[in-house]
Amino acid sequence: MIEEVGTTTEGDLVINVGPQHPATHGVLHLVITLNGETIKKVEPHLGYIHRSIEKMCESLTYRQFIYVTSRMDYLSAHINNHACALCVEKGLQVEVPQRAQYIRVIMDELTRIASHELWWGAMAMDLGAFTPFFHAFRERETINTIMEETCGARLTMNYMVPGGVMFDLHPDFQKKVKAFIQQYTSKINEYDELVTGNIIFQNRMKGIGYVTKEDAISYGCTGPVARGSGVASDIRKIAPYDVYDKVEFDEVLETGGDSFARYLVRVKEMQQSIRIIEQLIDNIPEGDFQAKTKAVLKLPKGEFYQRVETARGELGVYIISEGGTTPYRIKFRSPGFSNLSILDHMVRGHKIGDLVAAMGTLDLVIPDIDR
Amino acid sequence: MQALTNRAKSVDRKPMTFLESIYLWNIFKGMLITFRHIFKKQPTIHYPEQKRPFSPVFRGLHVLNRDEEGRERCTACGLCAVACPAEAITMEAAERVPGEENLYREEKYAARYEINMLRCIFCGLCEEACPKDAIYLSETFAPANFTRTGFIYGKTDLLIPNPKTEAADLAKAKGEL
Ligand code: SF4
Ligand code: SF4
User: Fold this and answer.
1) pTM assigned to the model
2) Do A150 and A94 belong together in one domain?
3) Full residue range of the structural domain in which residue A202 is found
4) Which ipTM score applies to this complex?
């Protein structure tokens, strides 16, 4: 292992963090070269949770493969499904009914809030604050219950089908979502008091893991990681899909570039998601929730690409079709992979205790990085 | 590059005052919020004693259905196995012989029908594919088990109790008792 790391000199210490480490949130394996307590190099090793999802999708039909992608980034499972469904629809050239588009966007934003909530709780827990974790899960649980009522599952929703959504909304959906918004807005001050405004927390986050705007662009960072460095990269703004061009929301940008800036981006993004839901929830049009599609889907020969904004950044789905019922080749551009690549650059020269504070704000979901 | 960032706002980065730097007030403030929650309504349920109902569309364990007369609906057509993205379903078809009309609805039936719950991703495509409404996903989830073979559910585990002969079991399975 020591030869592999390369930069080691006499007296350096090479340690493994993970693959079974509570702070790496899954099976991320980091090989860290330390000089005393100072990090000289961090090398992520992938492969512990590789399930070859891309290859697996090539043997599944266009209806089936969507559901496997829920297992990539399980925290924004719905948004993954959305990306795949949009890409297949692009190939089939079907028009998705307005109602389905509204439902999809509301669900997307609920998923985004749930994902950021979990990140917020886990992030605070990494830094040693245990209470926020429970607070976050309380709100997240409400979203999960709303999801369960309409979609049939709590985490891997499988609610998307090419051409729309699987079922119609539960009759109580609107009422429950509004109750959630109320519950959430009454709690948001508490979040700020408990964590954001806390000086101890701020001291651990500010100035840690600095990423410049240029670095964020050249490493291919997207999502809150890029926006924390001031790079406007929100796909919902750049290339709006479904009804995102009809709603009003701000792309949250921070110029700090450190862990605290990335933290603020996510916290403010949750409020923007609430704003989007508020605009849509009362205006869901009547009509079909699913377009009529053939029982056996066949994409025409060609290449199709669709990108969406997941909770972690830009997810791209690239399908090459030979005209059959299964994709010839499929490739996912996952946000987590590019975001992880900046970790080494970010934490060099910091103390090892700051590694977790920096890594936590990347919001890594390992199955997304290593498909 | 400039055009990309003109929407940015900057973060306040004042140095700490002396009072802030001793942290006591902040610890107290955090504790206050935490302790206030002792007197609030519990958001949790006490799981094994209390259970909360799942919604009707919940995709849980599979059930093989019977018709009103207690005959098995499945005809072993294999459409569910084809639709399954996880290849979790295996079955063996058999021909109905005279005298078994009260057991099976159609001339063909599944002699063996197995679902591997460790492979299944609970997507519900089998339910959608079935032309006979023979399989559906119920509102319970797979219980824990000690061995992997315990997760391969055969026909005895999947079939819903017969409404004619096992009415009490059926009511229990439906949660009516
Ligand atoms: S729920 Fe999905 S994965 Fe499970 S058996 Fe049915 S089709 Fe297969
Ligand atoms: S459960 Fe339905 S789809 Fe599956 S073999 Fe039986 S009849 Fe066919």
Assistant:
1) 0.85
2) yes
3) 50-369
4) 0.74
